[in-house]
Amino acid sequence: MCKVRFEQIEEEHLNSILDIYQYYVLNTTATFHDHALSVDEMKKLVFFDNSKYRTFIIIEDEVIAGYVILKRYKEKGAYDATAEVTVYLKTEYIGRRLGSLAVQYIESYAKTVGIHVLIAYICGENLKSINLFCRNGYFKCAHYKDVGRKFDQVLDVVAYQKILDE
Questions:
Q1: N-acetyltransferase domain spans which residues (predicted)?
Q2: Tens of pLDDT along 16-46?
């Protein structure tokens, strides 16, 4: 059985997670970034001023397999108990239940910092991510039609949420 652990991201991990993210940027509609990102741009996506919000790398058998982000939902104080969750895995690790482990890990962490609701925003055609969040108890709460354009496609965004303390 493979050993999986989560560690808070450090600067030394940036190139590894940038490589993971670049694949999705350049080859998929999983993210709406439409150009390769620099290390500095990636840094802004995964490091936060508020220590409540964090990125954790997913390590399987001493290899970085992906990362999971807990980030602020909106800047207004009334939203402080709501956060956004994002998971990215190296393609060779998809289908090995690491996504579910990452979601469960970030939910556990989120509860310790007072998060009540988690929301995942997903491209409407990204069925693997939709299934990941559904398997973990999230329900569809929004559908934004035709809000993105990438690779000459018009794309929807769907939001899935989970109330953590129910």
A1: 4-165
A2: 999 999 999 999 999 999 999 999 999 999 9
